[in-house]
Amino acid sequence: MTAQIPLDRRRAFRIAGTLVGLAVVLGACKHADGELTASFPEDYRQRHPIAIQEANRSVVIFVGHARGGLSASQRADVMGLAQTWLREATGAIVVDVPAGTPNAPAAADSFREIQALLAAAGVPPRGIVVRRYHPEDPRQMATIRLSYPKISAVAGPCGLWPEDLGPSIKNKSYFENKSYYNFGCANQRNLAAMVDNPSDLVQPRSETPAYTARRTAAFEKYRKGESTATTYPEVDQAKLSSTGK
């Protein structure tokens, strides 16, 4: 005859089994230092950091075989490069001039004009390095290339998808409510491309001297009890309506 287990004891066994199973589940979910670990950092600024490095800024000048000078837009490109070189360059301007090509004589004439424009913009002779090159592909038009190194901010590459966006066996981030790997990459890349001075991402700029003339005028108005706000008379001219006067 089989002994019957009392109802209270069976209920106690079920409760104990439930507690043991819950302890096993909680033990399996334990992570180092009490934080959820993943294959990549959770913060998008750590996943896609903005790096400060040296990169080249370049301008390409197309020269036909029958033209020996620069067009108006090409002269503007050269002058713009010279002005930015004075402000941000970390090395000399390297000018690659084609040699042994049908447009080589025209390129030589264009290069002399480029030298004159660079000198007029304030680039010293030692700041220009000339290199002759032979194009590898004769089907491509040989161009004059001007480049110089500068400090730039870069981020990426973007568009990497190591895991699925939806729920799957391999995608643990979905169940942990974590952002996907590519999240924030485009924002970091755009920020790096738009920043004027890459050093601003590392340290703040020093304060510039105060505008003494403006400060003196504001103090004088304050001493007389007048408003120190700046007024712009031309603002009223741009209004389409006089409502509110």
Spell out the key features of this protein:
alpha+beta, 245 residues, 60s Ribosomal Protein L30, Chain: A, 4-stranded mixed sheet
Structural write-up:
This protein has helices at residues 7-28, 44-47, 72-88, 104-120, 172-175, 185-194, 212-224, 234-237, and strands spanning 51-62, 93-98, 128-133, 143-154. Among the domains are: 51-154, 2-Layer Sandwich (60s Ribosomal Protein L30, Chain: A); 155-203, no CATH class. Mean pLDDT is 82; it is low at 28-38. It is an alpha+beta fold and 245 residues long. Strands 1-4-2-3 form a four-stranded mixed sheet. The relative contact order is 0.14. The chain starts with 6 loop residues before the first helix and ends in an 8-residue tail after the last helix. It contains eight helices and four strands, in the order H-H-E-H-E-H-E-E-H-H-H-H. Helix content is 37%, strand content 15%. It is flat, with a radius of gyration of 34 Å.
Count the DSSP helices: 8
What is the spatial order of strands in the main beta sheet?
A: 1-4-2-3
Structural class by sheet pairing and helices: alpha+beta
Taking the alpha carbons of the first and last residues, their distance comes to 104 Å
Please summarize the sheet with the most strands: 4 strands, mixed
CATH architecture classification of the domain at 51-154: 2-Layer Sandwich
CATH homologous superfamily label of the domain at 51-154 = OmpA-like domain
Multimerization state: single chain
Strand residue content: 5-15%
- Give the low-pLDDT segments: 28-38
Mean pLDDT rating: 82
Q: Overall 3D geometry? A: flat
CATH fold naming of the domain at 51-154? 60s Ribosomal Protein L30, Chain: A
Total strand count, please?
Answer: 4
